[in-house]
Automatic annotation (TrEMBL):
Membrane-spanning residues: 39-60, 66-86, 199-219, 231-251, 263-281, 302-326, 346-366, 394-414, 420-442, 462-479, 570-586, 591-607, 613-631
Chain's gene name: potE
A GO molecular-function descriptor: amino acid transmembrane transporter activity
Subcellular location: Membrane
Organism lineage string: Bacteria, Pseudomonadati, Bacteroidota, Flavobacteriia, Flavobacteriales
Coiled coil residues, start to end: none
InterPro entries: AA/rel_permease1, CAT_C
Tree of life domain: Bacteria
Ranges where the Cationic amino acid transporter C-terminal domain occurs: 593-636
Protein name per Swiss-Prot or TrEMBL: Putrescine transporter PotE
Length: 644
């Protein structure tokens, strides 16, 4: 087969004919139950979860009250992407989301890549939410006096890594009681877990429980899933509104000064955490075939979900940062924390219950989206036929739903929350980038039939270059130090925790003796905790740099330099190079501004993720390409059409 066969495309007309055929004969047809209200509820169910109940705390601690601008920026980026999704959903109202849209815009190979990325997005997203649900659920049980063994409520990687870090810190003089709560729990889980040889059996069993429960509900039917989702959305919206209504009476406006304590860099520091709070609205597009009027309802459902959730996020952020100082919010359960701090125990209990409900509703939407991606890929021959099997009674993709349960449940027992959160974000952003690019590719092709919704056209020919010039002016005029450090790859000093956890016993002794020799406040007489002794200097950047420079250890343990430092900047350099290419493309082809801005914003947020996420994502894509070239390419239905 010729190389051009890799980019063979499906036409909108053929897709619509196939859907009509499925509906006419009743085979492989999904039940149509959803309206705009249901889609909006699904969107809120997916979005109002980890963002409200967890990540908003860390983002607020980094950015202060000005974190509301980060929520606005992320909402704007998602809205740009939502316009592109809505246009495609109106044009191609079938299950498959970005996978199906890419098949029309770019061809089979790119469609396979995005479909494979979406599998990762939904699977990893489900794992993330299941782990978070487990954390809230076990905390709720503990507040009721039920204490599960630590080794059945924590994943293997967290326990293993936490044990190593805790051991290193205790070797450096820190006592067990002075370890952070997370490290204490990890150390306990690892040391109390049953062992088989050298293997410690640590597994997150509550996460397994909720995945089995939600998978059974999704398998049972869309109507049941819709009803459960709507009920859970009502519950958590009532709780969020109660938090705002009660919290507003405890707001002290003095806590909003300074409004942006760490400047723009502090606000942007939480970009990946805040973006994770918004992912999930695209799962709405996977339900296109189950909508009563997809061309009208899908665009409306997406937009309403983003608008409502953004208003809630901003209101919550202002209330939280008004109730307590921003720097106290770096906790895993910020809502419960602030009310607990203000002695409102009854509110903390209500929030704990609502968090369990909120996480379950997010998991429901994510667990519903992935089987429909697999079903669409199976229909095209890219996956085995079993994945497109629709249950004759429940009208759901039955086999794909069961497989999804296994794919999510097993890793949830063992994987680390931070790792899966970032992987989910990069997979989602990649999908957003391709959907926005797809709209740009198709904008000037008159042969493509258009749906009822079309993104408003604004010519970006001159606007994008002007925006780029403004960005360069800001970088060199107002942020020159950080910009030059980025360009010159200046060495960066490790923080105290990183330095201390990397030392062996002999090096720890040398560092303690040095800190003792420069200790003018006699702190070393009070404690032998190296991390505490070194971190006391971190409030003053100049003093900390001076102390670290004098440490009697190798420079490689004190500074990150050379390629070790540069590799973390590779994603941002990729973004900058692509940005120049996009400016040229926009100038030559008069590209539409809204999807172009969506592409740029999402690509920027990808660049903010660590290089390790890019590496893991690339490995995942390579595995997908292996499957494509060994199975999917020759079994593709378009392959058989070409041969005929």
């Amino acid at each position: 087969m010729a190389l051009s066969g890799l980019f063979r495309k499906k036409t909108v007309q053929d897709i619509l004919k196939q859907v009509a055929k499925n509906e006419a004969d009743g085979h492989n047809a999904l039940g149509k139950h959803l309206t705009t209200k249901d889609l909006t509820a699904f969107g809120i169910a997916a979005i109002v979860g980890a963002g409200i109940f967890s990540t908003i705390g860390k983002a607020s601690a980094d950015g202060g009250p000005a974190v509301i601008f980060l929520f606005l920026f992320t909402a704007l980026a998602c809205s740009f992407a939502a316009f592109a999704y809505a246009e495609f959903a109106s044009m191609v109202p079938v299950s498959g989301s970005a996978y199906t849209y890419s098949y029309v815009a770019f061809g089979e190979l790119i469609a396979w890549i995005i479909g494979w990325a979406l599998i990762m997005e939904y699977a990893v997203g489900n794992i993330t939410v299941a782990i978070s649900w487990s954390d809230y659920f076990t905390t709720l049980l503990q507040s009721g006096g039920i204490h599960l063994p630590q080794w059945i409520q924590m994943d293997y990687l967290t326990a293993s890594n936490g044990f190593k870090d805790a051991t290193a810190l205790m070797q450096g003089g820190k006592s067990y009681d002075n370890l952070g709560r997370g490290l204490q729990e990890a150390y306990t889980a690892w040391t109390t877990a049953p062992t088989i040889g050298s293997f410690h059996f640590v597994a997150d069993l509550p996460a397994l429980f909720i995945i089995i429960l939600i998978t059974a509900l999704v398998y049972r039917g869309m109507k049941e899933s819709r009803n459960a989702s709507n009920l859970m959305v009502i519950v958590k919206l009532c709780i969020v509104l109660l938090v705002i209504a009660v919290g507003v009476f405890y707001v002290d406006t003095a806590n909003w000064d300074p409004f942006a304590p760490n400047g723009v860099s502090g606000v942007l520091k939480g970009v990946s955490a805040v973006f994770f709070a918004y992912i999930g609205f695209d799962a709405i597009s996977t339900t296109a075939e189950e909508c009563k009027n997809p061309q009208r309802d899908l665009p409306r459902g997406m937009m309403w979900a983003i608008i409502i959730c953004t208003i809630l996020y901003i209101a919550i952020a202002l209330v939280l940062t008004g109730m307590v100082r921003y720097n106290e919010l770096n906790v895993g359960d910020p809502l419960a924390f602030v009310f607990d701090k203000l002695k409102l125990k009854w509110m903390s209990g209500i929030i704990a219950v609502s968090a369990v409900v909120a996480m379950a509703s997010v998991l429901l939407v994510f667990q519903m989206g992935q089987p429909r991606i697999w079903m669409s890929m199976s229909r095209d021959g890219l996956l085995p036929k079993k994945f497109s099997r629709v249950h004759p009674k429940f009208k759901t993709p039955s086999f794909a739903t069961i497989v999804t349960g296994f794919v999510v449940a097993v890793p949830a027992l063992f994987l680390n929350l931070t790792m899966v959160t970032d992987l989910c974000s990069i997979g989602t952003l990649f999908a957003f980038v391709l959907v926005c690019a797809g709209v740009l590719v198709l904008q000037n092709k008159p042969e493509i039939p258009r749906g009822k919704f079309k993104t408003p056209y604004i010519n970006s020919k001159f606007i994008l270059p002007v925006l780029m010039i403004a960005g360069l002016y800001y970088a060199f005029a107002f942020n020159n130090k950080a910009t030059m450090a980025f360009i010159n790859n200046d060495a960066q000093t490790y923080d105290a925790t990183t330095i201390i956890t990397s030392l062996n016993k002999e090096e720890s002794a040398k560092v303690f003796n040095y800190l003792e020799s420069i200790d003018v406040h006699n702190k070393t007489a009070e404690t032998a905790d190296l991390e505490h002794l070194l971190s006391q200097y971190q409030d003053d950047d100049v003093k900390y740099a001076e102390v670290v420079k004098g440490l009697p250890i190798s420079d490689s343990l004190k500074y990150e330099t050379g390629f070790s430092l540069f590799k973390h900047k590779i994603p941002m350099w990729i973004f900058l190079v692509v940005l120049v290419g996009l400016a040229v493309w926009a100038f030559r082809k008069n590209l539409s501004l809204i999807p172009l801005l969506g592409l740029i914003c999402c690509l920027y947020m990808m660049a903010e993720l660590s290089v390790w996420n890019w590496i893991y994502f690339t490995i995942w894509l390579l595995i997908g390409l292996f499957i494509y070239f060994t199975y999917s390419r020759k079994n593709s239905k378009l392959n058989f059409v070409e041969k005929i």
